[in-house]
Amino acid sequence: MDDFLAERFERSRSHLRAVAYRILGSRSDADDAVQEAWLRLNRSDAAAIENLNSWLTTVVARVCLDVLRSRRARREESIEEAVSEEPAPDEAGPEREALLADSISSALVVVLEMLTPAERVAFVLHDLFDLPFEEIAPIVGRSPEATRQLASRGRRRVRGASRDVEQNRARQREVVEAFFAASRGGDFAQLVALLDPNIVLRADRQAVEAAAAAHDRGAPKLAPEIRGASEVAAALFGRANAAQLAWIDGAAGAAWAPGGRPIAAFRFTVAEGKVSAIEIVTEAARLAALDIVLLPR
User: How far lies 238's CA from each of 187, 210, 259, 261, in Å?
Assistant: First the structure.
């Protein structure tokens, strides 16, 4: 029975991970939510479950909702906004925008952070996975009509915020592209000009150790933390010329990915047209937790 149950669970795993990732926006948190669903399944009377995939989806969604509420509480924000029980028109239809399709973009993950936990769960389960409001309502603790309004409000906020996010991402990409163009072109002055005077560069231990070995061959020296535009430019000048532009957790950055497999990520923070922070990530566990989408060269 245990092997049979495990086999059925494995058939649902990819779907459950997709649901959890779309709700939480974190691959590691999504894996934790799926694992919790497996533990709860083992503590339940599996023989009494009529539709295992539906049951597991509900469990994962509830776990994710708890995670979102915990995150929001840690940020000392209100857990949820009050929702009227009055029904709202269902805005989903043939005109549903492409970003509401089954596949999710890094930009949508960023936008979803702007929703309340209940809005996010209702929106994802209904608009991305086509679950009926009658099934979602018990998960978020609302009536079907109030759940419909949650999804509707989430949909409106996603549509409005996504435009702002895409514009911001375009500006980020321009700055990051200019950064690498200056580095590859040997224009140190332009590189410094693209950096905030108070920029901070951070590198993990593995990156520092690799740079130390390369330093013996004439490469710039790298420290765990470097501050200042000139100092950061000197440390990175020519170092990342082989890197490829990428979206990293929804933000513009770059990755060194020989053969298409990232082995180093450069996470950029761009503010007011300048790079204010850069983080170099090379440790395998941290890389695996990042959502890295390589862009064509």
Answer: 10, 15, 21, 21
Residue partners of 132: CB distance under 8 A and separation at least 6: 126
Nearest CA among 54, 56, 24 for reference residue 132: 54
Asked: is 2-167 a CATH 3.40.50.2300 domain? The reply is no
User: pLDDT tens string for the chain (297 positions)?
Assistant: 577 888 989 999 999 999 998 899 888 899 999 999 999 999 988 888 989 999 999 999 999 999 998 887 765 443 333 333 333 334 443 333 333 333 345 556 767 888 899 999 999 999 989 999 999 999 999 999 999 999 999 888 887 776 776 778 889 999 999 999 998 889 999 999 999 999 999 999 998 888 877 654 555 678 899 999 999 999 888 777 788 999 998 889 999 999 889 999 999 999 989 999 999 999 998 998 888 888 887
Strand ranges, E, within the chain: 195-203, 225-227, 244-248, 251-256, 264-271, 274-281, 292-294
* Confidence (pTM): 0.53
Topology, domain 185-294: Nuclear Transport Factor 2; Chain: A, (3.10.450)
Dig out the tokens for 108 from the structure. 């949508």
Question: What SS3 state is found at 90?
Answer: coil
Residue 37's closest CA among 22, 21, 17, 7? 17
Cα 148–chain centre separation: 25
What is the edge-to-edge ordering of all strands in the sheet holding 251-256?
Answer: 225-227, 195-203, 274-281, 264-271, 251-256, 244-248, 292-294
Domain boundaries, the chain: 2-167, 185-294
Distance CA 71, CA 31 (A): 17
| Angstrom distances, CA of residue 5 to CA of 9, 31, 47, 99 | 6, 19, 10, 35
